[in-house]
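Hey L., structure's done. Input below.
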Amino acid sequence: MKTQKLFYLRMVQLVCIFFLALFTTSMYSQTEGEIKKYKQDGQTGYFIMNDGDWLRHGLWKNDFAIAEYENNQLIWIQPKGDRKYYHEEIRARRIVAQLNSNQKKNLVIN
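Output:
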């Protein structure tokens, strides 16, 4: 009788361990589209799980600016006390700056 009770006790322990392991793995697993909040060093924002990577998503704020990201792509940024700068405008300014830099290099070479 004592061995039978011990057997049932061990079976209950094993079932409890199984369900506990199942619950904790599902709790810590990273599912597609899952969103997590980030808050550190005065910066807050959100990450979204996409294809196994955490990407910046939504509004990000810090002491100097506010920005919006969509799947790690900058949509716009607004420095404190200034207007919004959109991704296309920033990209165009980078291209112009790169062209000007290349022209200066060509002038020095020639």
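The radius of gyration is 27 Å. The chain has a mean pLDDT of 84.

-- N.
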